Amino acid sequence: MTVSEELFRRIFDVLSLPAKQQDVRNKLMHDILVRVCREGLKSTRHGFGNLSSQVDSLCRKHKVAPRDVVAIHAMRRHSNSIAPILPDDFAYDCRALAIFVSAVFGEAIPAFLTGKIPTMGRHVENIQLSNYKCIRCTVLAWDDATIKVGVLNQAFGNDCLVVDYASSPDYIDFTYLRFVLRVGMQLNLLDCGVVRNHVQPKIIVVEPDYLLDISAVANCFEDYGHHPLLFTVNRMKPRTLNRHTLLGNFAGAALDNVINHPECKTEDIIRSNFRDKALDHALCGDFNVSEFLLNAKLQVKHIREIVDEIFATYKRDKAILEPSFVCEHLGLQGRVDLMTTDLQLLVEQKSGKNFYLASHRPNKHGSLHIEKHYVQVLLYFGILQYNFLRSGKSTDIRLLYSKYPLPDGLLEVEPLKKLMMEAIKFRNQVVATEYWMANNDFSKLIPKLIPQTLKTEKCNEGFYNRYVLPDITAILKPLHGLSPLEKSYFCRMMRFVVKEQIISKVGFREGTGSCNADLWNMPLAQKIETGNIYVGLTIKRKARSTAFSGYDTITLNVPELNDEFLPNFRRGDMIYLYSYKKGNLPDVRKSILFKGSMEAVSDKEITVHLNDGQQNPDLIAGDFFAVEHGGSDIGSATAIQGLHTFITANEKRKQLLLGQRPPLSDKSLRLTRDYHPDYDEIILKAKQAQDCFLLVGPPGTGKTSMALQFLVREQLAENENASVLLLSYTNRAVDEICGMLSDTGIDYVRIGNENSCSPVFKSRLLSNVMAQVPTLEGIRQTLANAHVIVSTISSLAARSGIFNVKHFDLAIIDEAGQVLEPNLMGILSAKNPSSLDKIDGEAITKFILIGDYKQLPAVVQQDAEESAVADPLLKAIELDDCAHSLFERLIRMERSAGRSDFVGTLRKQGRMHPDIAEFPNRYFYMREQLECVPLAHQRELRLPYDVESEDAADDFLKAHRVIFIPSDSCRQPNLSEKANMEEARIVADTIRRLYRQMGQAFNPRKSIGVIVPYRNQIALIRKELEKLNLPALADISIDTVERYQGSQRDVIIYSFTIQSRYQLEFLTAGTFEEDGQIIDRKLNVVITRARKQLILTGNEVTLRQNATFSKLLDYIKTKGGYKTK
Question: 3-state secondary structure string, 1068-1096?
Answer without folding.
Answer: CCCCEEECCEEECHHHHHHHCCEEEEEEE
